[in-house]
């Protein structure tokens, strides 16, 4: 019997009672699982805290579920609906495209385009073969005949390639020319590389084009007896302006095509002009065919648009300025946007209290990989409490299924420790179907710019720990806030960033206080606007984390479960976008840091990212402004100056990723620093966006800026912001069963913020006339 | 503090909390990391200039010109297997003939066709009749090579098949008065029948036992024809088969004609060889070499069927050759079944190299030349053949045509031996190693890494290890921090990590694969009760690895 494993995902991350939510479950080695709806309370099993806590919830769907093995289509490609069989080319034909290979060769066959049945050897196609050579071939169901180029295509250079086939003589000709200019490719002309190859050969028979083989760009059809049809031979790299003609083109015509990017009209069957369809607000998955038959192509697993094309000349850095230079559409053979599994169960959400929920699935003893939590959040129909916890689902997506401990050489020096990996981490590393996070690279070396929750997310579940840092991270860490709210008896509602992105400020308006998660790092413009408007309109915001409101991300208009980021030239970044590929394909906006777009987090939250380290945390110590009567009410009931010299994240409240007050970056000038951490280790280095020249002395034991600031300021209309500036802060809350000074401090603030009317200390604002 | 005292490191981060005394830890005296750089002034091994002169012509690539490639009609095979490439040293476009064997074959055929022109008149009879024998034996050996080499069936009965066909066809020709051209066809039928009879046991018997069985069959045939009156027990063979030679020809042209006929027979055998060994059957069988049959079977390869098929086809071809033999020699003799014929032919295969057509042909040429042309040497010939065979068995791995590969393997072995003596373990790259490194950055990395490791080794002291034990994470003394930063920056392949067995209870040390999709491997079976214990155990492993490097 196979090892028993269970994985699943839900089609929604945020629901209201009465909504439908679908669960999609994959099981190995079993056909039934025991399902139980649970309300998640605390997610960190650290012995210094209260331990893992959940509440079982009655639900009609509880009990045994019948489950099965599910298959996932990995890899991005374009499909073409061709009901009339226009592309079943039985006579002469030509296939042509611009291509920028990311990893040619390496023993992998990559299909550029074709109507190819890899299982039955039928149809035709144009490939990069396992040696990296351009290859044209076809099959008749028995045999395959092919022709390959003279020299391999080189990584990261633009080429124009074509194959012509003359059905009367059986002569096939390959056309391969480099189209690198000074900007668009890896190698300059000084490298003395001759990219060209023109090979001709008389092939032996004619292709057979059965009607059931689809035309696919950047992939080819395959078959498996259990799984059925799927797509294989996926491309790693960019295509630009692929075209199909129903006659053998001459070399002069192809030269013309290469030089202009315009496909000759005569004999055109399809010409997918990948540079069409750009708007100021981005572009979708459809690739327009300008040929006579409207054979438009649809992206599967979201090929990346907004990428530079073969003719990018370096002057315009956005598709909004020169869409004709942005015909590049990039494919990765390990991209996954939506697992599209068969539905296992559908739940009509019962009238549940707002909070974090999960369907807990157990196989057998429910240990290790035999336990799965499919997490979702229930928001109320209408507000039920003055307190709102804003779940940073965008950041959950960003870190979803990260592989850093395994793939990133820099992770151990960055984290100052060796990773502690779990069975789930190893399973994740072994399984391509679970996809990658925005911190990973695709197998071809390109950074991952899309993440979704339509796939099992192994680290968005209670109990999960971030292997590289030895602490809980994101969702399981945020559960410490929920556990605190529960324990302290505060009535609260929960909404997600997905809701806020869609509904805007109106969603926050009814609440007196909004609590953030521990690390709300990935923020769309709509979310940032809503937060800013809410605070300016008299809302009170408690920023319970560090390194928040950092990256500008876009959500896909039709698929809210899909988030996009481009990591640019600044910021603490796991990868870097290529020159010219800085704009989000989903929104049309420049991605990168909000700081670099003129909206540093200090402007709204008072603090912004300054340093990170993962080997130790440090307590806060009250700052002199903590005694000013505008703020000293926060410390009521707290003895001494030290706050949070304990915690579940390396033993103190100030640490992991930490933020600092900075007037130069827009911290409101009347802000107070009420407490700060200090004495951080040298694993805490100053973040790169704050560094102009790196020099010795930018780390915790040298640089005064390396610290977490608790900042408090009042906003118009009785609004206020309190920021902790530290991710570890919230993981100190559960210490000693929530009886500690961090918990006390937060309780003072939440209680005050949740009360109507003026804030405590509002009146102590006269000019100071000191005697001492 | 005196000089002899152990230096003490004070945690700088503790100055933030003046109320409590700062943490102190015993540490090492200061040592500059530049020490190894300053001490190293030259490579330890002698540096030799490297680089190989291109003394031969290399075809340039086609560049923008059209390269019209040709095929052997009507196959998909290209006339020459040519690879286009970039010269890694200049990026010049070049072409390499990957497989030069077609050229050698073409030259060899040309030489064989023209050979009679250079045969001295004095030795004409001897040489030309030997040459014809060469053609026939080469054809037989090629078919036999299919059985031994391709199918991997150790049959010694190939000559028995030829003999049976020769006897049978001669007998039938005498009895029925058949024309010569029917003989190879009838021979093929006899061969097929014979092949069926001796092929079936091959499904059950393996290797040595099957060889013994076939040897028995050969002996049986010999005894039968020696004793059978119909098959000429009295005349030492059966004669009277029709000849393919026109009766009008004189002695010289007869020999010339029969030589070309035998050559044509060899070409026929080569075609058979090519179509079996180089096509589906041959590929299927290469998938299932000896001792890996089970694996092949698990992959869905029906190797037994393929082997029997090859055996039957070869037997048919052998039978047909037997028919030709009868026409050529006008009959058959018990000699065909004799043990020395079998052994002599085995010598031909072994000398040339098992599993190659060129081996079968060249081996036959050598042995036939010694046996039939150097007649003057007398019985010494056999000692010569034996000596060559012995030499081949003793010194060559795959016969004469395996020499190239064997030489390369030997050169590689010598290369690594020499490098092992010259290079320092974990040291810098030698110029000869650098030639094999595409990314020159790696060459510097090796230098840096060596300097770093030599320096770090000097930092490992009990004090440093004790400091790590007391606090694995957080701020450390300079010496310990340097060690840790080096360890953490290592590449991902085989980098140590910790695996949790049970949260906060049991941990174990593993090593990462560095290849996406491959799980880490367990390096020891000890469990550690806390992360700190595991961190320290992992640190000790890294220290040990450093000291051993």
Q: Can you summarize this structure?
A:
The complex is a heterodimer of chains A (772) and B (549). Chain A is mainly beta and 772 residues long. Chain A has ten helices and 45 strands.
**Strands of chain B, count:** 10
The share of residues in extended strands of chain A comes to 25-35%
Distance between the termini of chain A: 80 Å
Coarse shape of chain A: globular
> What order do the helices and strands of chain B follow?
EEHEEEHHHHHEHHHHEHHHHHHHHEEEH
Straight-line distance between termini of chain B: 35 Å
Please summarize the sheet with the most strands of chain A: 9 strands, mixed
Approximate shape of chain B: elongated
Biggest interface goes to: A-B, 64 and 63 residues
Give a written overview of the molecule.
The complex is a heterodimer of chains A (772) and B (549). Chain A contains 10 helices and 45 strands. With 772 residues, chain A is mainly β. Chain A folds into 3 domains: 5-72 and 343-376, Immunoglobulin-like; 77-331, Sandwich (Jelly Rolls); 378-754, no CATH class. In chain A, the strands form 8 sheets. A 9-stranded mixed β-sheet of chain A has the order 31-28-32-34-45-44-42-39-40, with helices on both faces. In chain A, helix 7 packs across helix 8. The N and C termini of chain A lie far apart (80 Å). The model of chain A has no long low-confidence stretch (mean pLDDT 95). Chain B has 549 residues and is mainly alpha-helical. Chain B is 54% helix and 8% strand. Chain B has a 3-stranded antiparallel β-sheet with strand order 8-9-10. In chain B, strand 4 and strand 5 (93-99) form a beta hairpin. Chain B starts with 7 loop residues before the first strand and ends with a helix. The relative contact order of chain B is 0.10. The chains are: A mainly beta (772), B mainly alpha (549). At the A-B interface, strand 15, helix 3, strand 29, helix 5 and strand 38 of A face strand 3, strand 4, helix 18, strand 8 and helix 19 of B. Strand 29 of chain A pairs parallel with strand 8 of chain B, so a sheet runs across the interface. Chain B: Its main location: membrane.
């Amino acid at each position: 019997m196979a090892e028993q494993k269970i994985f699943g995902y839900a089609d929604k991350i945020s629901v209201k009672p009465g909504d439908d939510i679908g669960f999609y479950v994959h099981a190995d080695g079993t056909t039934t699982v025991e399902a139980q709806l649970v309300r998640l309370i605390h997610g960190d099993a650290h012995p210094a805290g209260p331990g893992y806590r959940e509440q079982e919830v009655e639900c009609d769907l509880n009990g045994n579920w019948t489950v099965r093995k599910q298959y996932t289509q990995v890899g991005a490609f374009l499909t073409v609906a061709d009901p009339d069989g226009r592309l079943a080319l039985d006579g002469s034909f030509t296939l042509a495209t611009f291509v920028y290979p990311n990893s040619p060769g390496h023993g992998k066959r990559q299909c550029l385009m074709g109507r190819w049945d890899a299982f039955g050897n039928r149809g035709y196609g144009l490939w990069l073969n396992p040696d990296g050579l351009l290859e044209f071939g076809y099959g008749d169901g028995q045999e395959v005949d092919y022709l390959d180029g003279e020299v391999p295509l080189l990584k990261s250079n633009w080429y124009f390639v074509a194959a012509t086939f003359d059905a009367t003589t059986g002569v096939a000709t390959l056309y391969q020319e480099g189209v690198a200019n000074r900007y668009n490719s890896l190698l300059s002309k000084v490298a003395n590389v001759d990219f060209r190859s023109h090979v001709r050969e008389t092939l032996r028979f004619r292709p057979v084009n059965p009607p059931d083989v689809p035309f696919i760009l950047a992939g080819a059809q395959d078959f498996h007896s259990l799984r059925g049809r799927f797509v294989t031979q996926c491309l790693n790299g960019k295509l630009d302006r692929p075209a199909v003609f129903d006659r053998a083109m001459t070399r002069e015509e192809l030269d013309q095509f290469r030089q202009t990017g315009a496909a000759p009209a005569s004999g055109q069957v399809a010409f997918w002009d990948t540079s069409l369809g750009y708007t100021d607000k981005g572009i979708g998955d459809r690739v327009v065919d300008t040929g006579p038959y409207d054979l438009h192509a649809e992206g599967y697993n979201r090929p990346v648009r907004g990428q530079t094309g073969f003719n990018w000349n370096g002057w315009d850095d956005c598709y909004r300025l020169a869409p004709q230079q942005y015909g590049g559409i990039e494919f990765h053979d390990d991209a996954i946007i939506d697992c599209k599994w068969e539905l296992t169960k559908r739940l009509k959400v019962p009238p549940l209290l707002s909070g974090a929920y999960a369907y807990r699935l157990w196989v057998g003893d429910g240990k290790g990989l035999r336990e799965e939590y499919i997490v979702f959040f229930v928001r109320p129909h209408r507000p039920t409490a003055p307190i709102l916890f804003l779940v940073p689902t965008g950041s959950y997506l960003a870190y979803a299924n990260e592989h850093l401990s395994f793939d990133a050489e820099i992770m151990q020096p960055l984290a100052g420790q060796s990773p502690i990996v779990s069975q789930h981490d190893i399973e994740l590393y072994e399984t391509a179907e679970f996809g990658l996070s925005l911190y990973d690279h695709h197998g071809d070396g390109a950074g991952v710019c899309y993440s979704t929750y339509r796939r099992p997310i192994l680290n968005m579940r209670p109990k999960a720990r971030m292997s590289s840092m030895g602490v809980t991270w994101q969702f399981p860490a945020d559960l410490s806030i929920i556990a605190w709210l529960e324990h302290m008896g505060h009535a609260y509602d929960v909404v997600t960033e997905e809701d806020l992105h869609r509904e805007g400020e109106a969603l926050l308006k009814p609440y007196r206080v909004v609590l953030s998660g521990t690390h709300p790092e990935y923020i769309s413009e709509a979310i940032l606007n809503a937060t800013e408007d809410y605070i300016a309109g008299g809302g009170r915001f408690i920023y319970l984390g560090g390194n928040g409101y950092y990256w500008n991300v876009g959500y896909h208009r039709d698929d809210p479960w899909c988030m996009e980021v481009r990591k640019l030239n600044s910021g603490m970044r796991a990868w870097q976008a290529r020159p010219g590929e800085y704009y989000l394909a989903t929104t049309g906006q420049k991605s990168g840091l909000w700081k670099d777009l003129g909206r540093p987090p200090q402007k709204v939250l008072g603090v912004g990212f300054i340093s990170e380290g993962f080997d130790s945390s440090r307590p806060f110590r009250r700052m002199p402004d903590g005694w000013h009567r505008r703020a000293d009410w926060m410390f009521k009931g707290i003895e001494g100056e030290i706050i949070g010299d304990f915690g579940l994240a390396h033993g103190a409240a100030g640490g992991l990723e930490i933020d600092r007050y900075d007037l130069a970056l827009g911290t409101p000038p009347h802000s107070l620093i009420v407490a700060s951490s200090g004495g951080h280790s040298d694993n805490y280095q100053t973040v790169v966006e704050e560094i102009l020249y790196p020099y010795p002395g930018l780390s915790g034991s040298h640089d005064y800026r390396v610290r977490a600031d608790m900042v408090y300021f009042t906003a118009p209309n009785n609004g206020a912001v309190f920021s902790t500036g530290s991710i570890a802060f919230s993981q100190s809350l559960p210490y000693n069963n929530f009886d500690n000074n961090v918990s006390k401090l937060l309780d003072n603030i939440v209680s005050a913020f949740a009360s109507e009317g003026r804030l405590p200390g509002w009146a102590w604002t006269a000019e100071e006339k000191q005697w001492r | 503090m005196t000089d002899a005292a152990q230096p003490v490191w004070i945690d700088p981060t503790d100055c933030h909390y003046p109320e409590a005394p700062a943490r102190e830890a015993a540490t090492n005296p200061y040592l500059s990391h530049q020490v190894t750089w300053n001490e190293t002034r030259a490579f330890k091994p002698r540096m030799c200039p490297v680089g190989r002169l291109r003394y031969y012509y290399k075809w340039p690539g086609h560049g923008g010109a059209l390269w019209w490639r040709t095929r052997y009609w009507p196959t998909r095979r290209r006339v020459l297997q040519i690879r286009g490439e970039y010269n890694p040293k200049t990026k010049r476009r070049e072409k390499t003939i990957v497989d030069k064997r077609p050229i050698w074959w073409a030259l060899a055929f040309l030489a064989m066709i023209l050979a009679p022109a250079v045969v001295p008149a004095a030795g004409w009879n001897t040489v030309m009749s030997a040459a014809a024998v060469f053609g026939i034996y080469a054809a037989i050996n090629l078919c036999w090579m299919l059985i031994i080499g391709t199918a991997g069936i150790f049959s010694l009965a190939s000559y028995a098949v030829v003999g049976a066909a020769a006897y049978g066809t001669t007998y039938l020709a005498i009895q029925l008065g058949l024309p010569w051209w029917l003989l190879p066809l009838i021979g093929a039928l006899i061969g097929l029948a014979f092949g069926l009879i001796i092929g079936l046991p091959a499904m059950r018997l393996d290797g040595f036992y099957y060889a013994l069985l076939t040897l028995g069959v050969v002996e049986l045939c010999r005894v039968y024809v020696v004793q059978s009156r119909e098959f000429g027990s009295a005349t030492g063979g059966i004669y009277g088969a029709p000849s393919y030679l026109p009766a009008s020809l004189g002695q010289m042209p007869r020999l010339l004609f029969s030589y070309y006929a035998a050559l044509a027979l060899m070409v026929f055998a080569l075609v058979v060889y090519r179509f079996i060994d180089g096509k589906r059957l041959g590929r299927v069988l290469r998938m299932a070499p000896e001792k890996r049959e089970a694996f092949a079977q698990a992959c869905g390869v029906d190797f037994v069927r393929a082997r029997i098929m090859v055996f039957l086809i070869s037997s048919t071809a052998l039978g047909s050759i037997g028919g030709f033999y009868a026409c050529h020699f006008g009959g058959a003799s018990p000699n065909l079944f004799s043990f020395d014929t079998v052994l002599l032919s085995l010598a031909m295969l072994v000398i040339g190299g098992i599993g190659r057509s060129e081996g079968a042909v060249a081996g036959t040429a050598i042995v036939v030349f010694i046996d039939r042309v150097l007649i003057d040497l007398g019985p010494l010939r056999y000692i010569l053949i034996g000596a060559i065979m012995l030499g081949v068995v003793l010194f060559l791995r795959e016969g004469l045509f395996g020499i190239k590969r064997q030489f390369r393997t030997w050169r590689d072995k010598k290369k690594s031996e020499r490098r092992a003596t010259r290079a320092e373990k974990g040291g810098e790259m030698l110029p000869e190693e650098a030639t094999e490194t595409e990314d020159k950055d790696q060459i510097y990395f090796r230098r840096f890494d060596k300097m770093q490791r030599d320096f770090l080794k000097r930092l490992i002291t009990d004090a440093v290890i004790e400091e790590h034990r007391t606090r694995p994470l957080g701020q450390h003394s300079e010496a310990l921090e340097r060690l840790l930063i080096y360890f953490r920056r290592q590449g991902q392949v085989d980098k140590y990590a910790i695996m949790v067995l049970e949260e906060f209870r049991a941990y174990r040390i593993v090593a990462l694969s560095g290849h996406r999709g491959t799980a880490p491997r367990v390096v020891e079976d000890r469990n550690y009760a806390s992360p700190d214990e595991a961190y320290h155990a992992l640190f000790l492993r890294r220290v040990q690895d450093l000291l051993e490097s």
